[in-house]
Structure formats: C-alpha cells, structure tokens
Design brief:
two-stranded antiparallel sheet; 59% helix; mainly alpha
Length: 197
C-alpha cells in the first residue's frame, strides 16, 4: 500500500481523465466518477460529524459506516468487482430498528436543524441521497450489484434517524416545520377545548 500512495501528484489526470482500479482510464465527468465522488464526499462529511461530541455507540457505528463507504467506493472504482458485502446492509437495518425504537412518532415534517451534530447528520443524509442517485444513474448504464444502491438508501434513512437522536442528546427536540395545516389544527383544538366557568 505504501508504494501505491508514495506519489500523490502524478499529473496523469491533467488531461481530464482518471484511472480506475482496473487500470482503465475514464473521463472525470463520467457517471462512475460522479458516483465515486459523491460517496467520497459522503464519507468526508461523516468524518466532520465524527468531530462532534457523540454517544459512544453512535461513534462506533459511524466509524464502521466510513469503512463500508470506502469499500463501496472501491467497488465502484473496479467495474464488476464486489467489496461491499450484504452483511453491511444488515448492520444498518439493525441500527435503524434500534435507534428508531427510541424516538417518538413524527406527526409533522422536521427541518434539518437543531444541534450542530444533528444538522451535520442531515447534511450526511442529503449527500447520501445524492450518492444514491448517482449510483442509480450509473446502474442504468453499467451492470452493478444491488448492495451499493441499497446501502446508500438505507444509510440516508439512518442519518435522518440519527439526527433525531442527536437532537435529543442534551434534552433537545426535533425542529418542526411550521405548516399551515398544523397551525389550523392547533387553532381548532383550542377552539374545541372546554372553557372554565
């Protein structure tokens, strides 16, 4: 590995192409490179989230996710190869079930806001969705296994759930969208409430 990374500025990409893991060269604007870049950006954003004060179990989960995203990026860089195993998806499913069970049901949409950690989790959620779209687009052009697409889909769900968990860390709550419907319901409830005599 050390020999592979000994020279960072190779200048081989100066012509607008980049090398894949199988030594083929493609345009830096190709669907495959877009997907690889979005996964890399997602992993980097999770790295920023890991700079926050997080519960130990959430931290351990996110570190594992970073490793799996690196596998996913590696798989995308080598057409026809498999690095991301279905077991990685099971870890996300179990985490979703565990953390979602701790949360109250949502009656309304929430804003991507609250604590800094929760807001960063929302950024990760949106980048995961973009990476998923990029993988879907690539899959329409080249044959891909299902796991990368499913992993990104599930990960975006998990980041939404974790944002809610992180907003509650210090007694906080979700930041609810102030919709007209909810405002009318509150007014109706107030109007129907019995008045004292």
């Amino acid at each position: 590995m050390a020999n592979r990374l000994s020279q960072i500025a190779t200048r081989t990409g100066d012509n607008g192409t980049t090398g894949l893991g199988d030594n083929t060269r493609v345009s830096k604007d190709s669907l495959r490179v877009h997907a690889m870049g979005d996964v890399d950006e997602l992993n980097s954003n999770i790295g920023v989230l890991l700079c926050e004060d997080l519960p130990a179990d959430v931290r351990d989960l996110l570190v594992e996710v970073q490793h799996q995203l690196f596998n996913l990026g590696g798989e995308l860089s080598i057409p026809g190869f498999e690095l991301l195993k279905p077991g990685a998806l099971l870890v996300l499913d179990e985490a979703l079930q565990t953390y979602n069970a701790q949360l109250p049901r949502l009656a309304e949409f929430i804003l991507p806001a609250g604590s800094r950690a929760a807001s960063l989790a929302h950024v990760c959620r949106t980048v995961a969705r973009r990476a998923e779209r990029a993988v879907v687009a690539l899959g329409q052009q080249d044959a891909l296994k299902d796991t990368p697409r499913q992993y990104l889909n599930r990960l975006s769900d998990l980041m939404f759930v974790l944002s809610r968990v992180l907003n509650r860390m210090n007694g906080g709550d979700d930041v609810y969208w102030k919709s007209e419907r909810m405002a009318r319901m509150a007014q109706d409830d107030a109007a129907e409430a019995p008045t004292g005599s």
